[in-house]
Structures are given as C-alpha cells and as structure tokens.
Design brief:
This protein is an alpha/beta fold. It is built from 8 helices and 27 strands. It has 4 domains: about 170 residues, MoaB/Mog-like domain (Molybdenum Cofactor Biosythetic Enzyme, Chain A, 3-Layer(aba) Sandwich), CATH 3.40.980.10; about 55 residues, Molybdopterin biosynthesis moea protein, domain 2 (Alpha-Beta Complex); about 90 residues, Molybdopterin biosynthesis moeA protein, domain 3; about 70 residues, Beta-clip (Beta Barrel).
Length: about 425
C-alpha cells in the first residue's frame, strides 16, 4: 500500500501516488456543443439520450404472411379464412380482422386490430381467395410478430452521459430521430518541443549533431486517438524567454499544453523552472522508468500543462499513463487504467528502485495473456505495441505480472 499524498507540489512520488493525486483533483469538464450524428463518431455524450417512442411503435409483422386471430385456427384448418384485404408496410389506415377473415400482411406492416397471429406464406395454400393451413404446419400465437416496445419502450435511456459514440451507435440514433446530439467539445491540445539539437521533418542542418523531431508527432497522434484537437508548434530553441512566451501563448487557446524536453538539470533545461511558475504544481517527478522527470501543473481557467521528458519513449509512456487521465476528467469520464494479469515467458530482474514499465510482446495462451518483455532504452520508440509490464520486483518465468495494454491506453474509455 502506498502512503497517501496530501497537498500539492509534491516531488518524486510513486506511480500509485501520482494516480491517486490525479483522481482526487476537482477538474471541470470542458464545454458542450451540438453536432450532427454523422459527425459524432468518437465524441463523448454530454447528456443522456432517451427513446422518443417505443420500438416497435406497434405490433409489427416480422414476415410476409396472413394476419389472423388465433381463435380462428380451426376455421383456417377446415374451411379456410377469407382474404379480406392487403396490408402493406407504411399503410396510413387501420384495418381490423373480422371473424373468419385474414388480411395479407407484409414484413414491417402494422398488425391489424384483433390480429394476434401470423401464418407465413410458406405455411398456407391459397384457393379461391381463401387460405388453408398446409398439412403438418402449425400456427403459434404471436409467432412472427414484433411486439410493441420489444426493442425498447418510450422514455427509456438509450445512451448514458459519457458514452463514446461508435459507428455502430449511429443506426440507433437515426432510428430514434436524433438529428443532432450534445457532446463535449473536443479538448484542445498544443504540443511544444524544444532543443537546439532537434530539427523538424524535412529540414536540413549544416551540423551532423541533430535528430529529427518525433516526440511532437507521436504525441499528436496519441492525443488525436483520444479525441483531442491538436496543434503543433515549430521546434523551440533553448531560449528561456522564447519558451516561456510560447507556453503562455499556448495556454490562452488550449486546454492542455504538452512540452517535451528541457526537464533535466542541464544548463539549458529551462522548461521545468518555467512551467513550475505558471500554475499549481500537482507533482514534479514520479518514480517510474522511463519517465521520471514528468511534471503536471494545473493552471487557472481549467488549463493544464504536462512537461514531459525529451527522450521519446519516456514522453510517450508518461503521457499515456497520466495525460490520458486528465483528458478523461475533462470529459466527465472516470479516470482509469485497466490492469491485466499475464504469464511471463522470460524472467525479469528489476534494475531500478523505481516502478519500471517494460514494453512487451503479448500473446494469448489458453485464454490468458502471456508476455515477452523487450529491453528498450528511453530513446527507442520502435515496435511500440503489445503491452507494458509493470515491474516492482524480480519475477520468475511463468509468474503472473500486471500489464497494461497499449490498445487500452490509446482509447478514451
């Protein structure tokens, strides 16, 4: 059990303590907006949606056949039922079954009054405008009829607030005649990367001492997968005033500002000091590997800063573990990380006092997860898939260990 952290501006806390701190924060949700349902996939509902009518609205034929009253079954067998009329789907008039009669009724048609049974066309023979039940056929009451409200009844909650709209939800929204729905507006994220050694994609450098920027692009892709609206800024050089001004400008128009780099103790690592003065430091430094130097600052007007390490793997894992939780809270979702148990296919010797998150290949064996840990340095971002093994001690082969699936971390809920 971790000790409970009380207060803010805490430093070098455990992974669990960082999670507890974020979950304990009171964070307002972002504003709401109305969107057409054909633009709602991937959005989060900001209120409940109830059914406007029962579905079906009335008893409906489920097959092509002949609507009848079950009390006339013996007449159907012996003398036949007279075909009174035709009842097609979309009829604007009501029809009624009379004694000794039936009404030809098609799939999707409203069942006539007094009709409680349906003989499908394959069950009967038609002779001189009468239907007769074929030998060895049987009619059951209410068979082949969709009963009123069988799917759902009027005023039933169809979707709850906080529901992520998927493509498969669109049909139900359309059936319920929801032209527009109210959702939380997209969270606006600005990503700022800094470092004199970093150049943007496509640029050229006169020096060999450079690396192409990758942090901003992978973090942008992650934030977009979580439903955010993302903007990138050009690479910032190691200039204290420039970095400070750009972070402040970014806070004006965005809900979350992500910085990468400038978080160590070098002479040109300015970001850590700058962000610490822009709001309430919730935590600075978490005992995890990779990603120790992450800082989270809660600013005025419901703005948030995540200052991430410059090493790509460190920044990616830090943001997926902690930044995702803030995004969930801004959308009125319960912040969560789902842990699974997995069997170790290789032993693990813990190399650090911090909680280690080791990228791993993941398999399914006899219905349970199994993992193969992969050794990676904090600058390596190749083959990021599978799972993160949560390592807080040494593990023997075949032991069960907690894992977090990357697929889960790339989904908002």
């Amino acid at each position: 059990m971790s000790k409970k952290i009380i207060g803010k501006n805490v430093k070098n806390i455990s992974f669990q303590q960082a999670l507890d701190l974020i979950k304990s924060l009171e964070i307002e949700s972002v504003g709401k907006e109305k969107v057409f349902i054909n633009k709602s996939v991937g959005r989060i509902l900001s209120n409940d949606i109830h059914s406007k009518e029962s579905s079906p609205k009335f008893d409906t034929s489920n097959m092509d056949g002949y609507a009848l009253n079950y009390d006339d079954l013996e007449i159907l067998k012996k003398d036949g039922l007279i075909i009174d009329s035709i009842n097609k789907a979309g009829n604007t008039y009501n029809c009624t079954i009379k004694k000794g009669f039936c009404i030809k009724t098609f799939t999707g048609s409203k069942m006539p009054q007094n009709a409680d049974s349906l003989a499908i066309v394959e069950q009967v023979e038609v002779k001189e405008n009468r239907i007769f039940l074929k030998k060895n056929e049987n009619i059951e009451k209410n068979q082949h009829i969709r009963k009123k409200g069988e799917n759902y009844t009027k005023d039933l909650p169809l979707f709850k607030k906080g529901k992520l709209i998927t493509p498969l939800d669109i049909g139900l929204l359309a059936q319920n005649s929801n032209v527009m729905i109210e959702v939380f507006r997209k969270i606006r994220v600005r990503i700022l990367s800094s470092g004199d050694e970093i150049i943007e994609l496509g640029e050229r450098s006169e020096s060999e001492n450079f690396i192409y920027s990758s942090n901003n692009h992978i973090l942008s892709a992650i934030a977009k997968s979580l439903g955010c609206e993302v903007s990138l800024y050009g690479i910032l050089k190691d200039d204290k005033e420039v970095i400070k001004n750009e972070i402040q400008n970014a806070l004006n128009d965005n809900d979350i500002v992500i910085t990468t780099g400038g978080m160590s103790k070098g002479d040109f690592d300015f970001t850590k000091e700058i962000v610490g003065n822009l709001g309430e430091s919730i935590f600075s430094g978490v005992k995890i590997k990779p990603g120790k130097v992450i800082s989270y600052i809660k600013c005025k007007n419901n703005k948030h800063i995540f200052a991430l390490p410059g090493n790509p793997l460190s920044s990616v894992i830090s943001f997926m573990l902690f930044g995702r939780l803030i995004i969930q809270k801004l959308l009125s979702l319960e912040p969560n990380i789902t842990f699974y148990k997995a069997k170790l296919l290789n032993p693990i010797v813990k190399k650090d006092i911090r909680t280690e998150f080791i990228t791993s290949k993941v398999f399914l064996e006899n219905g349970i997860f199994a993992i193969e840990p992969q050794s990676k340095s904090s600058y390596m971002i190749d083959n990021l898939n599978g799972a993160l093994a949560v390592v807080d001690r040494d593990f023997e082969i075949n032991e069960l260990i907690d894992i977090i699936l990357f697929d889960d971390l790339l989904k908002i809920n």
